[in-house]
Amino acid sequence: MAISIVFNVFTASQINNYYNKQTSVYRLALKTTNKDKFNYIVDSQQGNVITYGKLTATNPVRFQEMKPSKKFLAVKRTLEEYTMHTETTTDSKGHTTTTTYWSWDDEKTDYKYAKQVELFGRKYDLSKFNVNGYFNYVDADKITNGNNGYNGHYYYLDGDTRYEYKVIPITISGSFIAQATGGTLKPIKNKSYILLSQEKYKNYLKERQNNNRFVAAFVVVMLSVIELGSIYIFIFDEEN
Predict the structure, then answer these.
(1) pTM of the complete model beyond 0.85
(2) Phi-psi category of 3—alpha, beta or left, where left has phi over 0 and alpha has psi -120 to 50?
(3) pLDDT tens-digit profile of 125-140?
């Protein structure tokens, strides 16, 4: 019992320390939505910074079948093929039944991303950012060429092959935390990319500065409840 108590206390302490560290990253980071202040932070390499701003593709992209006027920060194209499947089942008497059905199956997905984005008048490589949360479906007939080969949501290459599209607009807005170092932006420590969030600035700060504390407190309370329950059961068993 004593070992169990020590273990739970140690576990709760470790979890609490972990979430406190996560929270402190956001609490201690510089914060601004001002263009000049943000650029000064980057130029002077002041470390972690949180901001909200607009990212605009400097070289928008599209696929060949798309209208020249339809360009995006990123495009995603999924090839689907109408494929026949067979399914064989055997009943309790050993009778075998084969059923045939057709479905649209994903074959491959192609991506195109702009190489750079402009933020507060400066250019940054888009590869440093994760913007995949901004992809949304778009009807093919709104973005593809001609009046033959497409039908509503899909672009048909033939009767059993079609494309489905998701796009990110040329300009998007979002909140993020990044490291200002070397005169540019990089992911913060232990992260491989700068994650752009669609949350508004105040909500972004509130969620990340407070939620980790709530999680840590919840875990500590739950471990305490479990431990008290274990103690009660132990005492009850001893008395009986």
Answers:
(1) no
(2) alpha
(3) 999 999 999 999 999 9
